[in-house]
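Section 5.1 Outputs to date
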Amino acid sequence: MKLLHISLVFLVVFLLAESSSEKVTKRKKYRRRPASIEAAEIKNEEKSEEDMPVAPPSDGEVIDNRVPLVDPCMQVRCGAGRVCQVDDSGEPQCICIPKCPVETESRRKVCSNHNETWSSDCAIYQQRCLCDKGDGECKGPQYKHVHIEYYGQCREMPHCSQEEMADFPRRMRDWLFNIMRDLADRQELTPHYLNMEREAESNMTRRWTNAAIWKFCDLDGHPPDRSVSRHELFPIRAPLMALEHCIGPFLNTCDSDNNHRITLSEWAKCLQLEEEEIEHQCEEIADAEVEIE
């Protein structure tokens, strides 16, 4: 019995010792680390974040110290022959195209109003810009208003007879109305011009007038200044020159004061329409882009 009692005492002492050792171990395991170690780990984490790759900027943004900034040229529209460039003060400026791509294909050639073949449309636009800015590379003052007459190498065009020229305004009016009607059928006109086309369909007196106003507004685009430059006539002159040899001489007569711009009044007179029936009905379209010359 005495032996059994001694054994029980030893067992209790052993269990108490094990329990005490386990608590010490737990206290050591969860003991707070020194502040210096935690500070070092935080610094390493921050350094790790700095070393992480930065996502590339989206279109129209540049990265400056990882802060996205809007590109100043995003809302700038430069004219033909110009490109936008940010100057030293961070302001957008339109400069002449420094260098046009080298074109070797003959189909890229264009014929100018001086009956000269140029390697590309870029070369003509660049030359006009250089002359407009008074650059030393300008070939002469006459090139300040150089523009494209038609696509392809210059060639001898048939002579436009007096009879053809006299009938051309009527043909031009019919062509403009047919184009306007076709765009309306394809639902490619804005509601504003679609209403004008419908009026022209139901009112014969407005047929040619509305078509003439629509085309004038369509050409007077960048910037809309209630006049059409010789350059802005490009969409109807260049593609048709090979088929309608009279269109070049006809459009030249529209600029009655020879200031290289055609007003709505000159446009009406050229198409043999009553000037009092012509009024400015161009759709006011808000354009976020800013034109810089």
